[in-house]
Specification:
Length: 197
């Protein structure tokens, strides 16, 4: 799946499963869903796919930066949370960097596309900011589920070498565009339902 398709579904999932009250809650759900949904593709190295992965990671980083900036301007709960248990935050941050290094150096659809990778990344983010870790897990899970439909399998049970896939469609084929539209439509629907109903 292309990165914007992953982001669309990641946002749809986090907007559906989280209690949302303030505009900041919405921003938090959107940015965490986006970050979680693109983390797995830090292992992409092929130049054409790398460009797409970088686009998704940039979009997620911008959404996160906006959310943090809005939080800093409003009530600074992010800063309070990060400094409340600073030792845990530091360990979580160090683990996150280590997992990223392992992920970047791993073959595509290996460690980062596995249950182990998903659990480790989410746990590290949970140590940094618990709510963000949980929401990223939702986004990450949506990435793994969407990639399972591709023709090239995932090493879902890494370090086991067996690849798993449903082989339904190609990464950037017509199905990807349909899923992307569906993901953004679901995100918009979840946003409207949560905001007005
Ligand atoms: Zn992927």
């Amino acid at each position: 799946m292309m990165s914007l398709t992953h982001i669309a579904f990641g946002m749809a999932v986090t907007l559906s499963f989280r209690e949302l009250e303030s505009p900041l809650d919405f921003a938090f759900a959107i940015s965490a869903g986006a970050v979680g949904s693109v983390l797995a593709d830090i292992d992409v190295i092929k130049s054409n796919k790398r460009k797409d992965a970088l686009l998704g990671q940039s979009v997620a980083a911008i959404l996160l930066a906006f959310t943090v900036a809005a939080n800093l301007l409003k009530d600074r709960t992010v800063i309070r949370q990060l400094t409340r248990h600073s030792a845990v935050t530091l360990v979580g941050s160090a683990l996150f960097v280590i997992f990223c290094i392992i992920g970047v150096r791993s073959p595509h659809r290996g460690f980062t596309h596995s249950v182990v990778g998903m659990a480790l990344f989410s746990a590290a983010l949970y140590m940094i900011y618990p709510l963000f870790g949980v929401l990223c897990l939702y986004g990450y899970l949506s990435h793994i589920l969407l990639d399972l439909f591709n023709k090239r399998g995932l090493r879902l049970f890494w370090p086991c070498k067996k690849r798993v896939c449903l082989g339904a469609y190609k990464v950037d084929g017509a199905a990807d565009k349909v899923f992307r539209l569906l993901g953004f439509a679901l995100s918009a629907a979840a946003l409207i339902v949560r905001a007005y109903i």
